[in-house]
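INFO  loader      accepted 1 record
INFO  loader      residues=100
INFO  predictor   begin
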Amino acid sequence: MLLGISILFAVSLLFYFFPPKKINDLYGYRTIASKKSEANWKLANSYSAKIWLCFSVPSFFLALLANYKGWLNLEMLFAGINLLGLVVAIVMTEIKLRKN
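INFO  predictor   done
INFO  writer      dumping tokens
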């Protein structure tokens, strides 16, 4: 479970520090709304990365602590928090794009 949380954490860092430069079908926050314009693309990728990072950083470090302490049943909770962050990032980003 820690590996999965670590991957999600690494991906959130990747999107935050190395956002995609141009609209593409391989890398970035790709939805119909985000691909409508370059402005939407940049906004969506920046905004969603920040939100996801807010969830993935604490859940990663708490999962590390849980793994270290042997609280393996809590790793699932932190994985769920990380995935919830991804869902929240998508919903909030789509709302933000509709307002623009």
